[in-house]
Amino acid sequence: MLPGRIRLQSAMEYLMTYGWAILIIAVAAAVLYELHIFSPAPASQCILQAGFSCAGIFLSQNGILTVKVVQSTQTPVVITAYGCNSNRTISALVMNELPSNGVTVLIGETYTFSTPCYDNGARFSGAAGQDYSGYLILNYTQQYSGLKHTLYGSIVVKIS
Length: 160
Description:
With 160 residues, this protein is α+β, with helices and mostly antiparallel strands. The chain folds into 2 domains: 39 residues; 115 residues, Immunoglobulin-like (Sandwich). It has 1 helix and 10 strands. Strands 1, 2, 3, 4, 5, 6, 7, 8, 9 and 10 form a 10-stranded mixed beta sheet that branches.
């Protein structure tokens, strides 16, 4: 065997060994990226039942929650009251009643409202960066059938 061939063979083995190692590391990094391991936790979360979604949510230090709700049910709805509470209870204190006619929200439209949040019966307030976990409560009536519904949405919001 010629001395030059031994050096070429050892160089090829070196490249193949490190090439496979780099490929495995790249694949592992891609998998971790796709699983959102490198992404920070979301600052806020709003989960509503089917037919409704949150397009934006904001909580101020004085406990006022501002929510932009998207309505995508099969019929227009009339929102009659809304509120924010740390538990799933509805009371006159928590709910903000709208005028007798309510607010009609057509299919695909959004409705933005602001409401104070409550925690164990007291109005909530907190420092910037603190989390609030509770429920968004929405009373609505289907416009055509007249059926009344209460929607409970789970929210986690970081105070801004």
